[in-house]
Amino acid sequence: MIFSKLSRTALCSQTKYDMELYDEKIENEIFASKMPVLVEFYADWCGPCKVMKPIVEEMEKELEGKAKIFVLDIESNPKLADKFTVLSLPTFAIYRDGKRIKTLVGIQKKETLLSLLS
Q: pLDDT per residue over 2-31, tens digit each?
């Protein structure tokens, strides 16, 4: 199974086992990263998520090689949304050395997110 950063398409898994492997791979990427990590939890129907999409895409280009950015659809990844306690959308979780250092909810300024990743 291919894992892709910044994929906003629905996860195409055939079985529950595939979904569990995908969830485990994402968690490993987040918690084992030596770089800062931004995880955005979103849904296609979420208006504020649509506002944030181009901002997060810009950040991904600007931070290439300096930070990791993952965009996760809560409907395709419900277990991860539960595990990461996502209650509102969009939710941004920032990690350093495998630990969550900050959680932000709703529309955010690009500068705010960048400052947390630098």
A: 333 444 433 333 345 555 656 778 888 889
Q: Which residue(s) pair with 38 in the sheet?
A: 69, 94
The tally of domains found in the chain comes to 1
> Residues 39-66: pLDDT tens digits?
999 999 999 999 999 999 999 999 999 9
9 within a domain of the structure (yes/no) = no
Which residue reads 């990791």 in tokens?
Answer: 68
Q: Which domain holds residue 81?
A: 16-117
Q: Which of 30, 37, 39, 49 is catalytic?
A: 49
Residue 2 lies in a domain: no
Maximum separation of any 2 CA atoms in the chain, in Å? 40
Whether residue 12 lies in the annotated active site: no
Residue 49 annotated to the active site: yes
